[in-house]
Amino acid sequence: MYQVKTFNAIAKTGLETFDDNFKINQSETPDAYLIRSVNLLEEKFPTSLKTIVRCGVGFNNVPLDRATENGIAVFNTPGSNANAVKEIVISLMIATARNLFAANDYSNKHTEADISQRTEKDKTKFNGTELAGKRLAVIGLGNVGARVANAALALGMKVIGYDPYLSSNAAWRIDNKVKRASSIRRAVKNADFVTVHVPKNDDTIGLISTTEMTAMKDDVVLFNYSRIGIVDNKAAVEGVKSGKISHYNTDFGEPILADQPNITITPHIGGSTLEAESNGAVQGANTVMNYLESGDTTNSVNLPQMNLPFEAQYRLTLIHKNVPNMVGQISTEMANRGINIENMSNAARGSVAYTIIDVNSIESDDREDLLNRLNSIKEIHRVRVIEHS
C-alpha cells in the first residue's frame, strides 16, 4: 500500500485515477507528493518520500538538487497543458491582428445613445489584418510549439520554426509544411509574428533580447507564453516604444510592463483551463503509480529517463552519484549473496545515475542485509526493492 499526499487543489479526475493500492492524504509519512504550484523550496522532506510529481510543466518550485540527494525522483507532466497554451496564443494572435483590445476600449468610452455616425467614421482606426498569408516564427517546437505551428498552418499562415534540440519523437508531431531555420535570427527575419516556447534554463534566459529583436522586421508581434525571463522584458518595452514591436503579449507581468501601450499581460493563465488541470492530474497520478510500482522514470526532471519491462519477480532501483565503479560495487554485493541478476540497466544524467536490476529470487534475510550494505555506500542516495504484483 502506497501513501500519497496532495498539495493545492488536484483535479478530481486525477485523484480517481489511483487504484486501490494507493491511499490519498491518509498519512504524514507519504511515499509521494502530488503538487501543482506549492512552494517546496524550503520544505523538509520526510524520509518516506520517494517521489514528487508536479501536475504541470514548470518545476522551479521544487529543490531538485536537495530532492536528488534525498533519493527523491521528481517529475512533471509535459504536454498536459499544451493545447491550452496553444489556444491562448492563437486567440491573442487574432485579437492583436484585428485590434480587438483597442476597439473594445473605444466602445467602452463611447456609449452615447446614437453614435452610429461617429462609429462609422472612427472604425477605420481599428482596421486589422488577417492571419492567412502572414508569417509566423515559432522558437521551440516541443509540445506547445508544435501545436501552435500546426494550428497556424491550418489558419493559412506560413510557419518557420527553430529548435536545435528537437527530438525525433517531437518531429513526428510537426506538419512537414513547417520550414526549419538554422538560427533564431534566420527564423525571425521576415516574420510578422514571433512566439517562444522553450523550457527555462541557463541557456534560454534572455534568449530573445535586443540582438534578436533587431533582426526582426518592423511592426512584428511578439509573444512570450513560455516562462518569465525567456524574453528580455526591458528590451521588449524598448522595442514597443521604438515601433520595432507593434504589440507584445506575455503571460508574465513585471513592473516595467505595467500600463504600457501595445503590451498585453495575462496573469500566468496560459495553461490554466479545466481540461489542462484534469490532464495534468491524470498524468501526474499515472506517473506516481508507474514510478512507485515499477521504477519507471519517464518524464523525470532530475533522473535519467528509463522505462524497462518489469518481467522478473523483484526489481531493485538505485539512485546514486554518477561516479566510476558504482555498477561494479552493486553487482558485487549481489553476487556475494548468491543473487542472480536477470536484467540490469544503468543510465546517467549529469552528476546523478539510476540503476535498475531485476531478479527472480531474493531471500528475506539476504534482502535486508543487501539493502543495509548498499545504503551504507556513501554515493548511493536511495535503494528500493519493488515486488512484481
TrEMBL record:
InterPro entries: ACT-like_dom_sf, ACT_dom, D-isomer_2_OHA_DH_cat_dom, D-isomer_DH_CS, D-isomer_DH_CS1, D-isomer_DH_NAD-bd, NAD(P)-bd_dom_sf. Residues 315-388 form the ACT domain. Pathway: Amino-acid biosynthesis; L-serine biosynthesis; L-serine from 3-phospho-D-glycerate: step 1/3. Keywords: NAD, Oxidoreductase. It comes from the Bacteria. It is an enzyme of class 1 (oxidoreductase). SUPFAM superfamilies: ACT-like (SSF55021), Formate/glycerate dehydrogenase catalytic domain-like (SSF52283), NAD(P)-binding Rossmann-fold domains (SSF51735). Pfam families: 2-Hacid_dh, 2-Hacid_dh_C. It catalyses: (R)-2-hydroxyglutarate + NAD(+) = 2-oxoglutarate + NADH + H(+); (2R)-3-phosphoglycerate + NAD(+) = 3-phosphooxypyruvate + NADH + H(+). Its EC number is 1.1.1.399, 1.1.1.95. One of its GO terms (molecular function) is NAD binding. Belongs to the D-isomer specific 2-hydroxyacid dehydrogenase family. Catalyzes the reversible oxidation of 3-phospho-D-glycerate to 3-phosphonooxypyruvate, the first step of the phosphorylated L-serine biosynthesis pathway. Also catalyzes the reversible oxidation of 2-hydroxyglutarate to 2-oxoglutarate. This is D-3-phosphoglycerate dehydrogenase. It comes from Companilactobacillus ginsenosidimutans.
